[in-house]
């Protein structure tokens, strides 16, 4: 089955700096890679996702890059703000051509702390 | 994004009682919903896949008689923790798939269960 590794487990940055979280996956068939943000006591929130036919995707201050050959993908947050502080999870799954997909395999999470 | 509503957000019960958690997709129909369990500072662990109109599919090691799942309609899935014990205390989160290719997974806000 799929195995997703995520690093670092904790990350502290100064407000305004950039933050990068990296994940690797094992199953070359995986083609859908979402990122979730989870605040304390809440459910995960989908913040950005990327499919394997795209190498990079950007949405305002967040971006995700994918290297299929190396089987790794990364989340980039620029101009970090205190409200970016949360736990971030990467995930991987196989998305079917007709729609739907198999279950998501999650990384172990990264606690991001943005300090003033 | 799509809205998944989960209730209650927090429940405290006595050992031996049963607790029901509801998960509703508010603005879309979900033939498949997923139930996760999360321990403090850990990743999400898939418990079972809830299929509308049929039996749920449980992950290895999850007791189906302990965690009863019912998916009676396209917008509602319920998880009942039967004869709860302190070791069942955890954060339970439901999710559902939607999107143009039905691959995006959206989560409810979670239920913190505390069994005394």
- Uncertain residue segments of chain B: none
- Total strands of chain A: the figure is 11
Q: Cα distance, first to last residue of chain B?
A: 36 Å
Ranges of chain A where pLDDT stays below 50 over 5 or more residues in a row are: none
- Report the mean per-residue pLDDT of chain A as an integer: 94
Distance between the termini of chain A: 41 Å
Query: Could you tell me the number of beta strands of chain B?
Result: 11
Report on this model:
The complex is a heterodimer of chains A (116) and B (116). Chain A is mainly beta. Chain A contains no helices and eleven strands. Chain A has strands at 4-7, 10-14, 19-25, 32-38, 45-51, 56-59, 62-67, 72-77, 86-92, 105-106, 110-115. In chain A, the strands form two sheets. In chain A, strands 2, 4, 5, 9, 10 and 11 form a six-stranded mixed β-sheet that branches. In chain A, a hairpin with a 2-residue loop joins β6 and β7. The mean pLDDT of chain A is 94. By secondary structure, chain B is an all-beta fold. Chain B is built from no helices and eleven strands. In chain B, the strands form two sheets. In chain B, strands 2, 4, 5, 6, 9, 10 and 11 form a seven-stranded mixed β-sheet that branches. In chain B, β5 (44-51) and β6 (57-58) form a beta hairpin. The radius of gyration of chain B is 13 Å and the shape is globular. Classes of the chains: A mainly beta (116), B mainly beta (116). The A-B interface holds A 32, 34, 36, 41-46, 49, 89, 93, 95, 99-101, 103-104, 106-109, 111 and B 1, 4, 6, 32, 34, 41-44, 46, 49, 93, 95, 97, 101-110, 112.
């Amino acid at each position: 089955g799929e195995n997703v590794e995520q690093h670092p487990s904790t990350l502290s940055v100064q407000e305004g700096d950039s933050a990068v979280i990296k994940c690797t996956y094992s199953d070359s068939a995986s083609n859908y890679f979402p990122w979730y943000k989870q605040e304390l006591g809440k459910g995960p929130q989908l913040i950005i996702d990327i499919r394997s036919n795209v190498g990079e995707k950007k949405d305002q201050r967040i971006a995700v890059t994918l290297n299929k050959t190396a089987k790794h993908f990364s989340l980039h947050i620029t101009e970090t703000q205190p409200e970016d502080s949360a736990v971030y999870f990467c995930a991987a799954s196989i998305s079917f051509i007709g729609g739907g997909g198999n279950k998501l395999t999650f990384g172990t999470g990264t606690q991001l702390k943005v300090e003033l | 994004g799509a809205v998944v509503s989960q209730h209650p957000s927090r429940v405290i019960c006595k050992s031996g009682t049963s607790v029901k958690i509801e998960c509703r997709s508010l603005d879309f129909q979900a033939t498949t919903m997923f139930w996760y369990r999360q321990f403090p500072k850990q990743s999400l662990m898939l418990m079972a896949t809830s299929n509308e109109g049929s039996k749920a599919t449980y992950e290895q090691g999850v007791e189906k008689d302990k965690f009863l799942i019912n998916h009676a309609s396209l917008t509602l899935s319920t998880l009942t923790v039967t004869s709860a014990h302190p070791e069942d205390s955890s954060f339970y989160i439901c999710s559902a798939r939607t999107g143009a290719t039905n691959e995006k997974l959206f989560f409810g806000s979670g239920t913190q269960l505390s069994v005394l």
